[in-house]
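dude i think i finally got it to work??
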Amino acid sequence: MTDQPASRTALVLFSGGQDSATCLAWALQRFARVETLGFDYGQRHVIELQCRDNLLAGMRSLRPDWTGKLGENHTLAIPTLAEISDTALTRNVAIEMGEGGLPNTFVPGRNLVFLTFAAALAYRRGISHIVGGMCETDYSGYPDCRDDTIKALQAALNLGMARQFELHTPLMRLDKAATWSLAHELGEAGLVDLIRERSHTCYLGERGARHDWGYGCGECPACRLRAKGWREYAARTA
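look at this
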């Protein structure tokens, strides 16, 4: 149990990717204590979880005031999500568009499950603020990334657990270029460089090739979106 009041403590869904790293910095600017939570659900890009320690170490060295705020880093294994999914994120299949106009990278219910588990952990640790990188601006149409979904889930969690959780989604209205800009605003060039070097976004889990925007295959939807955002951000700041 944390010794900070619930109103001053946040739990950040921290996968090890660009968005969650930016959300972590956002939370560190606003809360007295921040804990992090990642999920091992059988994802192909499980390497993102292995990037978290290096990212956290970089966060601690980047800003002295962040060092004392960073608390426990949790990992929850929920392999059942992969067992009931048949998606390109949990199976070794080609990434393509599926039925209904959604890419086959969509894992049904993933964010609903993540936030429910996060709320259960936050309940036990006396935390009322939960931060996630969901976004409905630059995304693949995932219905569980929409603002209406998050607001509805917040209401359900508060009713079902008799607590007043607040779900924060600081990237909800931002495109990827704006997310890079927010990282610069929060931690200047040091944070931008840290995210480029140590975070992971590629759906295929590739970390061999180094691009201007970081490591990845360069071809999957996540890499293309990150690269596009980087080019737009770099053009604005040139």
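The longest strand covers residues 33-40.
im so relieved honestly
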